[in-house]
Structures are given as C-alpha cells and as structure tokens.
Amino acid sequence: MAKLILCDVAGRSGHQENSASMSQANASTVTEFFIVGFPGLLPKYFPLTAALFLCIYLAVLSGNSLIVLLFVIERSLHKPMYIIILSLSLSDIGFCTVALPKVISRYWFNDGYISFDACLIQRQLIHYFGTLNSLIMMIMALDRFLAICYPLRYPVLMSNRTMKLLIGFSWVTAMIAPTISLMLTLKLPFCGPNMINHCFCDSLSMNQLACADASLYNLITFGVAMFVLLVPLSFIIFSYASILVSVLRIANVQGRLKAFSTCATQLTIIIIYYIPRFVVYITSTIPNAQLSSSQRIALAMFYSLLPPLLNPFIYFLRIKEIRQLFLKRCEQRNCVLCSTVTISK
C-alpha cells in the first residue's frame, strides 16, 4: 500500500514537471506581435490614415529640426530657457521616430508585424520619452518660477551650466520608471494572443496579452505612471501658482502682461500634454468609466502627437526672439538668392 502511494506521488510530481515544462514552452511561443492600430477602421481608410500619420511625422520632424538648427547656428539662443526648448524638441523627434514609422507601415503596406524584442524596445522608448517630457516640463516650470519670482538672483541660480546639468539628469533618470515597468512585463508569460490593440507597443496593451493574471503588474505599472505624472505636475502647479501671486503684485500693467505672455506659452504646452493623459490613465482603472479601445487609442494618439506637432508653431508665434531670428535667416537667404540670380544674369 505504501509503495502504491509513493508511486502515485512520484507519478503526480512527474506529471506536474511535464506540465510546467509544457507551459514554459508555451510561454515562449509568441515571437512577434501585430499592431492592430484602430480596431474599427475600415480597410478603405488605411491609405488615408497612413498619409495622415506620414504628414504628422514630417511636420514634427521638420518643425522641431528647425528649432534644433536655429539653436546650433545662433549663439544668442544659448540660454537656459532655449536649452529647455531644444531638449523638448529632441525628445519630440525621438518619440515620433519610435512611434510612427511602424503604424505608417501597418496602414500603407499592411505590414503590422513587429518582433517580440522590437516591441519591447519600442515600448521602453515610448514610455522613456513620455517620462522625459514630463521631467522637462517640470524644469520648464522651475525656470519660469525662478525668472519671475527671483529675477535678480535668476542669472546666478539658473546658469547655462546648471540648466545643462538638470536636463542631463532628466535624460538619464527618465529611463528608471520604464525599466521598472519592463521588468514586470518580462515576468509574464506570452503564449497565444499577439494582437496589440494600439498604434504602438505600450505597457497596458502588452500586459493584456499575457497568459497569466496581470492585474498586480498593471496596478504597479499604474502606480509608477501616476508617480511620473503627478510629482512633476504637483511642482508645476506650485510653480505657476507662485508665479501668479508674484505677477499680481507687479504694479506695472505692462510688466504683468509680459509675465503672463511668457507663462502662457508653456502653460498651453503643459495643458495639452497632461489633461488627456489623466483621462486615459484614470478611465483605465475605473470600471464604470472605461473608454472603448478606439476611444482610448484616439485619445492616446492625440496627447502623444499633438504637443510635438504644435510646439514649434507655439515657439515661433509666442517667443519673439525665435521668430525674429527665423525671419532674419529667411531674409539673409533671400538676399543670397537674389544676388546669385543677379550675378547669373
């Protein structure tokens, strides 16, 4: 009888080991994912969607590259505020270069397949640039806070060297939160579904495809995302509230308008960046307020692509020095062209 029990236990343990090895093998069966994009989009609209994303990408690339070029050739722009703008432009170029080519390929050539490793890299960089933008905007708020609330001490407190150190620190530390989220995802098994219901790979879309309960991982990822979002936003709100109090104390009306005008540019960028993100993050955790897949994707693409698209135009329209330097360069180019035509005649 004892022998029979021992044989039964050994048989069960052997069966469990086989099951574990089979499940481990199944967990590694997914070698690629397919980027679905917008789930309800009809195929006849695929070329139009691809063309739209291509136009957005080219506009972001050209507009932000122009900002970078102006900064490189104009030494007068080598100031703390413009170092922030340069960093934000580089981040916007990086994000769109990571996010858009694959979805353009998906809708133009019906090539939505992306390898498992490439999806992980894309997801890591997507969250990296999102975190980086949040940190840059916090530094932007700090810069305006010091410039308006402590104008006499500003040149000492915020030198070019200090700003470069802050920006460099943000570019390095922005990788921490996405790496935590990535390490959690790597613990999940992926053994079957491979359709990414998004225009690019991200944490939520990948975790939904796991063959195990990912609720704990999603909760931790949500907590990390909220930390990345709320800590900079809290400082931004504090900074602009302090700026508002300082501006209202200015007796000179013209001085008030100038201060408000300077802050309005950055506040516009910050509002466009933060509010739609909050809607997506909050609705993903509240059962009765969840958005449909198409609504969530559309909102995510809105807050991801609109700021990089609008930022260069906002800089040119709202920042006088950038606008004047751009017009000056255009005039010089026209003069060179005119003289070239005259000589050729």
Q: How does this structure look, described?
A:
The chain is mainly α. It has a single domain, classed as Up-down Bundle (Rhopdopsin 7-helix transmembrane proteins), CATH 1.20.1070. It has twelve helices and three strands. The protein has helices at residues 2-27, 46-73, 80-109, 116-149, 154-157, 160-173, 176-186, 203-207, 215-248, 253-283, 293-318, 320-344, and strands spanning 32-35, 113-115, 195-196. The protein has a three-stranded mixed β-sheet. The N and C termini lie far apart (111 Å). 30% of the residues are buried. Residues 1-27 and 337-345 have low confidence and may be disordered.
Number of helices: 12
Give average pLDDT, whole number. Answer: 81
Structure classification: mainly alpha
Low-confidence stretches: 1-27, 337-345
Rg over CA atoms: 26 Å
CATH topology assignment? Rhopdopsin 7-helix transmembrane proteins
Instruction: Give the overall silhouette.
Output: globular
Q: Tally the structural domains.
A: 1
The first-level CATH class is given as: Mainly Alpha
Strand order of the main beta sheet, please? 2-1-3
CATH superfamily: Rhodopsin 7-helix transmembrane proteins
Give the termini separation.
111 Å
Q: Give a short account of the largest sheet.
A: 3 strands, mixed
Assigned CATH architecture:
Up-down Bundle
Number of E strands = 3
